[in-house]
Amino acid sequence: MKPASILDYRALSRARVPRFLFDYTDGGSYAETTLAANLADLAAVQLDQRVLVDVSRVDTAVTLLGQTLAMPVILAPVGLGGMHARRGEVQAWRAARAAGVGMALSTVSVCSLAEVTQGGGAAPWFQLYLVKDQAANEAMIAAARAQGCPALVLTVDLPMPGARYRDVRSSLSGAPGIAGSLHRAAQMAVRPHWAVDVGLRGGPAAMGNLNSLVGAKAPLSDYLGWLARNFDASADWDRLAWVRSLWPGPLIVKGILHPDDAALAVQHGADAIVVSNHGGRQLDGAMSAVKALPAILDRLGGCIPVLADGGVRSGLDVLRYVSLGASAVLIGRPWVWALGARGQAGVAHVLALLRAELETAMALTGRTRLA
């Protein structure tokens, strides 16, 4: 299939990567009602078509936290995203830099921050999960400073993982021992291109930022188990202030859905927030980001940039979020699907599609600038 849209890349990725990996990225928690709401509520935002406006020149560029982006798009942090292609986060960051957009590297990326920085020629943003080991948190923040990351993204909506039924069915979780290993091996066996390119030639299959905590040669199951035991459920607003004290650059708080939490984030040092329900992967039944965004913007009154994620599947969706007041959007599943389908070239194509669709949507709504 010749891909013409982000959903085409979803289909291509599904046919290429093992089921346990595709379902991990594609799925949400419980009955996936919030995942569905992210899509439906965003699609329901209607755009005003305007005519007889000079739209011969359309400028999609924005300035965010001192950085100029070719369009208001950031590759969102996605755990295990790098397993979809050989050293995948490096490929994705190269595509993002070439397209003039940003990327936030996940704490639980396959490639370490140092590898991605070296492979991409510059440091991306770094996304931090707070774990129980305070020294580990300090070390990750220090590594982000040492690598020169332009911003730190603190994700606050994962004190413990939500229940994801797809992961149980695929044996990614809840299946220790030989039975789980055989089930996953069978899924890899029917994806021979991935098995060779990633499974055999793309190692190590680990979480590079956590090597010192889990062990560089530990199997992936050990990393997943360590994470399940070590997310810090005791973290509170004082912990955000503590992170603020250690990080001198822009600090972005991701995972805000309530106006009161948005205000508290500002009070405790956030330079920007991301309105997000973790892609529908945490609290099922939570409000979609689109529905949450207006009240949060009203509460903050423009004092800091407000980003959003969830449900973006086209450049029209980018404009929908911007039209509601978002400074930029984060995309997660789209770049991972593209990576799984065609590697760096796939991510580059998805970003080109988004920009072309955004330009068309701007022209048809009579808008020439986003700034």
List keywords for this structure.
single chain; 371 residues; alpha/beta; 8-stranded parallel β-barrel; 16 helices; 10 strands; globular
Task: Kindly describe this structure.
This protein is of the alpha/beta class and 371 residues long. Helices cover 48% and strands 10% of the residues. It contains 16 helices and 10 strands. The protein has helices spanning 6-16, 19-26, 33-43, 88-99, 113-120, 134-147, 165-169, 177-189, 192-200, 211-214, 220-230, 237-246, 259-267, 289-300, 315-324, 333-364; strands at residues 62-64, 67-69, 73-75, 102-105, 125-128, 152-155, 251-256, 272-275, 306-309, 329-331. The strands form 2 sheets. An 8-stranded parallel beta barrel has the order 3-4-5-6-7-8-9-10, surrounded by 6 helices. Strands 1-2 form a two-stranded antiparallel ribbon. β8 (272-275), α14 (289-300) and β9 form a beta-alpha-beta unit. The protein starts with 5 loop residues before the first helix and ends in a 7-residue tail after the last helix. The relative contact order is 0.21. The model has no long low-confidence stretch (mean pLDDT 93).
Question: How would the blueprint of this fold be written?
Answer:
Blueprint lengths: L5 H11 L2 H8 L6 H11 L18 E3 L2 E3 L3 E3 L12 H12 L2 E4 L7 H8 L4 E4 L5 H14 L4 E4 L9 H5 L7 H13 L2 H9 L10 H4 L5 H11 L6 H10 L4 E6 L2 H9 L4 E4 L13 H12 L5 E4 L5 H10 L4 E3 L1 H32 L7
Parallel strand pairs: 3-4, 3-10, 4-5, 5-6, 6-7, 7-8, 8-9, 9-10
Antiparallel strand pairs: 1-2
Helix pairs in contact: 1-16, 4-5, 4-16, 13-14, 15-16
